[in-house]
Every structure is written in C-alpha cells, then in structure tokens.
Amino acid sequence: MAHSANVQQSLARRSRTFPAALLVLCTVLVGGWFAGPGAAAADPSGCTTDSSVPNQLTVTCDRGAGVGEHAFIRCRDLLGMPHTHIGATIGTDGGWSRANCAPAETGPV
After folding, report:
1. Which has the closest alpha carbon to 2: 10, 30, 68, 103?
2. Distance, CA of 21 to CA of 6 (rounded, Å)
3. Which end of the chain has less Cβ packing within 10 Å, N or C?
4. DSSP character for 2?
C-alpha cells in the first residue's frame, strides 16, 4: 500500500513539472522567433564586410582601422532560434575577423 502511494506522489509531481517545462520552452521559442535579429552596425572606417560565403561573415580592416572591432553573425538553428557568433578581435595592425554559423544553423539573418 505504501509503495502505491509513493508511485502516485511521484506521478503527480512529474505531471506538474512537465507543463511548466513545456511552457518555458514555448516562451523561449516564441521569443526567439519574434525578437528578430536586431540592428546592424555600419562598417568602421577603413573596413569592409564580406558575406558572400554562406553561413559566414568576414570583416577585413586596413592597418590602423577597426581596432577592437570583430565580426559577428546572427544565425538561426533548426527550431528558428537566433544565435550570435563572434569572431576574433581586430588589432592595431588591421587584419580580418571571421564569424561562422554552427553546422546546423543558417545565416546571416
């Protein structure tokens, strides 16, 4: 008899946890779909942006330009959730920064 009471309590606890977890998941998904990618920033002086390669964004800067800048790309996963990936920071010698989407993501969005 005590065992069946423990099983009933365990099932009751799980039945309350599942709807709460489902509600949190749905809230996150809907928030990701409707939040959008946000505002895009203009290229710093002396820098160019290349997004010709799918799922990749590269920022290239001349020497002395774009110090402290980095590439960032906004991607969407299979569920439509947005993710931001950030490339390396550009130093005083210029150079490039590249950001890539994960294998199961698409971007930029």
Report:
1. 10
2. 23
3. N
4. H
